[in-house]
């Protein structure tokens, strides 16, 4: 399917038979991250030009599902996990462990190719940041965010997410 596939071709441009055959010929890896952590990262990277995290979250909520940026759009709407059977789902926060396994499965020497990842430090930092940022939000914003990301929270095991009920 290389001749049919170019950088600009979307999967939706192929018919069902071509899509199934093409996806079957690839190892499909999905990298997922807690949606609240994605919001924090986007805000900290300066994509949110508002002065406060609460204002940024309100912009996200006001943009709605269809006008939202890919930086904070729900993962389910971007990667279609209900339609595509991924071979691996790698959770941010467990990258060292999961990438090592993935490299071994691919027949590559995992130890020499992986950068030094300190997952426990990343998890602790995001836990602390999440607590700080979550406390800035109103009860209504918290409820709206949980609703905005409800399908991500249902599809992936983000059990410790601040957005989980």
TrEMBL record:
GO BP, sorted A to Z: carbohydrate biosynthetic process; dermatan sulfate proteoglycan metabolic process
Location relative to the cell: Golgi apparatus membrane
Segments passing through the bilayer: none
Keywords, in A-Z order: Carbohydrate metabolism, Glycoprotein, Golgi apparatus, Membrane, Signal-anchor, Transferase, Transmembrane, Transmembrane helix
Class of the enzyme per the UniProt entry, highest EC level: transferase
Keyword Glycoprotein set for record: yes
A single cellular component GO annotation: Golgi membrane
Keyword Repeat: no
GO molecular function: sulfotransferase activity
Domain of life of the organism encoding this protein: Eukaryota
EC number, UniProt record: 2.8.2.-
Primary subcellular site in the record, as a coarse category: Golgi
Membrane topology, record value: Single-pass type II membrane protein
InterPro entries to which the protein is assigned, alphabetical: Carb_sulfotrans_8-10, Sulfotransferase
Family membership: Belongs to the sulfotransferase 2 family.
UniProt-recorded name of the protein: Carbohydrate sulfotransferase
Organism: Cnemophilus loriae
């Amino acid at each position: 399917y290389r001749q049919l596939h170019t950088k600009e071709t979307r999967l939706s441009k192929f018919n069902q038979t071509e899509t199934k055959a093409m996806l079957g010929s690839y190892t499909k890896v999905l990298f997922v991250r807690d949606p609240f952590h994605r919001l924090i990262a986007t805000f900290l990277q300066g994509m949110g030009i508002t002065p406060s995290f609460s204002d940024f979250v309100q912009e996200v909520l006001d943009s709605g599902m269809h006008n939202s940026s890919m930086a904070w759009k729900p993962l389910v709407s971007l990667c279609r996990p209900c339609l595509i059977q991924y071979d691996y789902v790698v959770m941010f926060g467990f990258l060292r462990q999961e990438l090592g396994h993935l490299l071994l499965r691919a027949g590559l020497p995992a130890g020499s190719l992986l950068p030094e990842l300190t997952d426990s430090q990343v998890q602790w930092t995001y836990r602390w940041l999440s607590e700080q940022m979550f406390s800035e939000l109103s009860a209504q914003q918290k409820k709206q965010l949980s609703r905005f990301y409800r399908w991500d929270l249902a599809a992936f095991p983000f059990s410790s997410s601040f957005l989980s009920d």
